[in-house]
Design goal:
InterPro entries: MurNAc-LAA_cat, N-acetylmuramoyl_amidase_3. The protein has about 230 residues and is an alpha/beta fold. It contains seven helices and eleven strands. The chain has two domains: about 180 residues, Zn-dependent exopeptidases (Aminopeptidase, 3-Layer(aba) Sandwich); about 40 residues, no CATH class. The strands form three sheets. Strands 4-1-5-8-6-7 form a six-stranded mixed beta sheet. It has a three-stranded antiparallel beta sheet with strand order 10-9-11, with helices on one face. Strands 2-3 form a two-stranded antiparallel sheet.
């Protein structure tokens, strides 16, 4: 099916976004967005762009224009929440006038994210609607994700954890993959015979042929490593 997805790390530059316990939202969402991009690399027929790759300020209308000019299939804005120290959880937003496709996308992506966050006892604050500029001004399905509360000490600690963010990024990508029926790239394997790399392949028949050939030549050591 294929898809073109624009990931929008919120804030940046002079706009730190929410802050808590010395952590800036702009930094968290940029790291998370880069991890999302990395996880999309496991899939076929998907193109990904980020509205920013570094710590720079971008106006809200510029973020929407970025996606509109590329005629992408989905726009996802990445944020952290902030309120009182006791506020907690995850929530997603679409525009009140969103299309039925956008509603369906929100349902699927939200579900996959919560399947991951439930392992950490993160509260589901629900699927919501709001007249946010990046949701209003984009011409394609658009979703804004509020990934935990930076003002909550426990959730702040999770947002500092690179492995947690990596799992969250993977959950977001799995949700998008489900929406667009993306297929994973075949796993690549490296065949090494007596310390010499023979070749890299994803095909079982080539692996079998290489191993049989190595056995025929009385190889001392045959290694198969997943890349």
């Amino acid at each position: 099916m294929g898809a073109y997805v624009v990931i929008d790390p919120g804030h940046g530059g002079k706009d730190s976004g929410a802050t808590g316990f010395g952590l800036n939202e702009k930094d968290v969402v940029l790291e998370l967005s880069k991890k999302i991009n990395d996880h999309f690399g496991k899939y076929q027929d998907v193109t990904v762009s980020l509205t920013r790759w570094d710590d720079r300020f971008i106006e809200l209308n510029e973020r929407a224009d970025f996606a509109n000019k590329r005629n992408c299939d989905l726009f996802i804005s990445i944020h952290n929440n902030s309120a009182s120290p006791s506020a907690n959880g995850f929530e997603s937003y679409i525009h009140p006038n969103a299309s039925s496709s956008t509603v369906r996308y929100q349902d699927e992506i939200h579900k996959h994210i919560m399947q991951y966050l439930t392992q950490y006892q993160i509260h589901d604050r629900g699927k919501k609607q709001a007249n946010f500029a990046v949701l209003r001004e984009t011409s394609m399905p658009a979703i804004l994700l509020e990934n935990l509360f930076i003002s909550n000490q426990r959730e702040n600690e999770l947002l500092r954890d690179s492995s947690f963010l990596d799992g969250l990024a993977n959950a977001i990508v799995e949700g998008v993959a489900s929406v667009f029926q993306l297929r994973k790239k075949p796993a690549m394997y490296r065949i090494t015979v007596d310390g010499q790399a023979v070749y890299d392949t994803a095909y079982e028949s080539k692996i079998v042929d290489a191993v049989l050939e190595a056995v025929r030549k009385h190889a001392q050591e045959i290694q198969l490593k997943k890349l």
